[in-house]
Write a structure and sequence with these properties.
- About 0% of the residues lie in helices and about 55% in strands.
- It has no helices and 24 strands.
- Strands 1, 2, 3, 4, 5, 6, 7, 8, 9, 10, 11, 12, 13 and 22 form a 14-stranded antiparallel sheet that branches. Strands 14, 15, 16, 17, 18, 19, 20, 21, 23 and 24 form a 10-stranded antiparallel sheet that branches.
Length: about 375
């Protein structure tokens, strides 16, 4: 089947662009988040396409006065991967790798948000992870900090973004578990676990990025830190795997309770202290959502609003849909720089360094 993408030099295989290899779990996703310099006004957006599942879905979230407002949408893809509208949510690529716009109109929620990058996006190391014999993840991701302009409206109350509103966007593509779960067991004695921390930081004149995936024993299988000065091109970054995050969990949860990141930078060790300000539940973008998980089929078009009172959520709910969070944090660097950033964390199953032996052990 020919689509709009076939008129651009984007092909990676002899097939038309509509076909993405043979793995049914192939996906291609956009992610955005943003917040004011004091951590207020949080919002986030995600849009994913799943060529082999014939599904596209999108989500918008914002936090106001302790309530997380979420808009979910899903439609049949119809094999057209260049159509970046899912119901009431649209993404427009204005200048590739630099300027993108998000438009939202539906269910009492509306927004116009324009993102402009601070530097060229970083390319993270390829994520390839197996549980027992099975490939669980195999994907590439680009990440970029930037500034936002625009506005958000909740039930008729419109608010312009505060001056200096910043945040992070990423693009990832490859293989992850999407759509209906695979019922086939991994094999006798295989216990799945997952440990993830991600901390994109906006400082006054530069961005810092750190992530770690580790196994249940604490051994990293994918980790790196990057320092990106404003305006840097693709070869203007400092990159190193020599970075560590010392952090703890909020009591009774698997949510981060701040932490200290240490990066072995060229001028010597650079430390950044994270002070938690605002909690965002990633289920609002479909991550670990029991109903709106990525790639789930909802028919030709489905749209739903979901409001969450953050103080009422059970951090260790049996469905595990509240484990995955981003904590907007104030950042204080050993250089005297003060900034704002995110601390994303997802810990599923055992994790020996923190004494987690089962799926429902908490900090």
């Amino acid at each position: 089947m020919l689509t709009k993408g076939d008129d651009f030099p984007l092909h990676q295989t002899p097939e038309p662009v509509a076909y993405a290899g043979t793995d049914r779990n192939f996906y291609d996703r956009y992610f955005f988040n943003g917040y004011a310099p004091d951590g207020s006004g949080f919002f986030a957006v995600a849009l994913g396409i799943y060529p082999h599942l014939n599904v596209a879905d999108a989500h918008f979230s914002c936090i106001r006065d302790g309530v997380q407002y979420n808009l979910h949408a899903s439609r049949e893809l119809n094999m057209e991967r260049f159509d970046l509208t899912v119901g009431p949510i649209t993404i427009e690529v204005i200048e590739p790798l630099n300027i993108l716009k998000v438009t939202v109109r539906g269910e009492g929620l509306a927004a116009e948000l324009t993102f402009t990058g601070r530097a060229f996006p970083i390319e993270e190391p390829r994520f390839t992870y197996r549980i027992g014999p099975r490939t669980f993840m195999d994907y590439t991701r680009l990440t970029q900090n930037g500034h936002y302009t625009g506005w958000i409206e909740v039930d008729g109350q419109r608010t312009d973004l505060a001056p200096g509103t910043c945040g992070t966007r990423d693009r990832s593509w490859g293989v992850r578990p999407v759509g209906a779960s695979d019922a086939q067991p991994h094999g006798h004695g295989v216990v799945s676990s997952f440990f993830w921390q991600w901390t994109p930081v906006n400082l006054p004149t530069r961005s810092l990025f750190f992530h770690i995936n580790a196994d249940r024993h604490g051994a990293p299988w994918n980790t790196r830190a990057v320092i990106a000065p404003d305006g840097a091109g693709h070869d203007g970054f400092f990159e190193t795997p020599a970075a560590t995050m010392a952090s703890s969990m909020q009591p009774g949860t698997r949510w981060p309770d701040g932490g200290t990141l240490t990066i072995n930078a060229p001028e010597g060790p650079l430390t950044l202290a994270f002070e938690p300000l605002v909690r965002f539940q990633m289920r609002g973008l479909g991550y670990t959502s029991p109903k709106w998980g990525h790639g789930a089929y909802h028919g030709p078009l489905a749209v739903e609003r979901e409001d969450l009172v953050l103080a009422d959520l059970d951090p260790m709910a049996p469905t595990m849909d509240n484990l995955h969070v981003q904590i907007v944090s104030r950042i204080t660097a050993s250089t005297g720089e003060v900034g704002i950033g995110g601390f994303e964390q997802l810990v599923i199953g055992p994790y020996d360094p923190w004494g987690l032996k089962d799926y429902f052990d908490a900090g």
